[in-house]
Design brief:
Distance between the termini: 18 Å
Mean pLDDT: 96
Number of domains: 1
Order of helices and strands: EEHEHHEEEEEHEHEEEEE
Helix content: 10-25%
Strand content: 25-35%
CATH topology: Nitrilase/N-carbamoyl-D-aminoacid amidohydrolase
Number of helices: 5
CATH class: Alpha Beta
Shape: globular
CATH architecture: 4-Layer Sandwich
Radius of gyration: 17 Å
Low-confidence stretches: none
Length: about 260
């Protein structure tokens, strides 16, 4: 199985972001990918500010226009597409990830369980979390999601292990408080911390970090992608701070970043 981990630079124009996602699916299909993974909140950026009037319009219904467009591309190219997105259900907002199958069907929907995608004082009647970890059977094994801070919660990781996936898809959004792309700090502190958490999960993980245009926020997420083995060994990397695609074959081998 060949996977494409897409580091997409997300700007303020949602339509342009979604069109870029569609284009990257087509590009990955031409390169022979069977699975395309986008980061957390890929269509909008994680720019919620705990004010429902601002945040609810960022949310997408599932199913809805965004999932329909990506499902059409998945069906067109007979591959799997996975992405994070802000999900709106009525007047509630979730930090969600979906897996769309090669027929365009919604194979898996996961709502982030760990709550730190919003502030502590955010209205709990609006800003909601999920409570389930489920798996989807695919030709290349059983797949599950975690999103961002989920990976650093021992109880959630234990539940993931109990669910028994073969492969973890991990869209996330990581920045630094000073807003800089600090590659030295990432190499020194962050990469090993993420790898250690994957080792605790005991599953190979495909990990894509959101790359936000600085116009979106003072503290933009800085991108990058990794493949980490079940023992915590980093098998492939994509550099911070630039868009592109990391191709990797499950079971070994990767292509240079595109």
């Amino acid at each position: 199985m060949k996977a494409a981990l897409v580091v997409l630079e997300v700007g303020p124009d949602v339509e342009a972001n979604v069109a870029a996602m569609e284009a990257r699916v087509c590009e990955a299909a031409e390169a022979g990918a069977d699975l395309v993974l986008f980061p957390e909140a890929a269509a909008t950026g994680l720019i919620n500010d705990d004010h429902p009037a601002h945040d609810l319009p960022l949310g997408q219904p599932i199913p809805g226009p965004l999932t329909a467009r990506l499902a059409a591309r998945a069906r067109q190219h007979a591959l799997y597409v996975a992405t994070g997105l802000l999900e709106r259900e009525g007047d509630c907002l979730y930090d969600t990830a979906v897996l769309l199958g090669p027929t365009g069907a919604l194979e898996l929907k996961y709502r982030r369980i760990q709550p730190q995608w919003h502030g502590r004082n955010a209205d709990p009647n609006v800003y909601r979390e999920g409570d389930r970890i489920e798996v989807a059977a695919t030709p290349f094994g059983r797949i599950a999601f975690l999103i961002c801070g989920d990976l650093f919660d021992d109880a959630i990781v234990a539940r993931l292990r109990q669910a028994g996936p073969d492969l973890l898809l991990f869209p996330f959004c990581r920045n630094f408080a000073d807003g800089r792309i600090d590659r030295e700090r990432w190499d020194r502190e962050e990469e090993s911390a993420y790898a250690a958490r994957v080792a605790l999960a005991g599953r190979t993980a495909f990990m894509v970090n959101l790359l936000e245009d600085p116009s979106l926020t003072e503290w933009p997420s800085f991108g990058g992608a990794m493949v980490v083995g079940a023992a915590g060994d980093v098998l492939a990397r994509f550099p911070l701070g630039r868009p592109g695609i990391l191709y990797v074959r499950l079971g070994g081998g990767c292509s240079p970043p595109a």
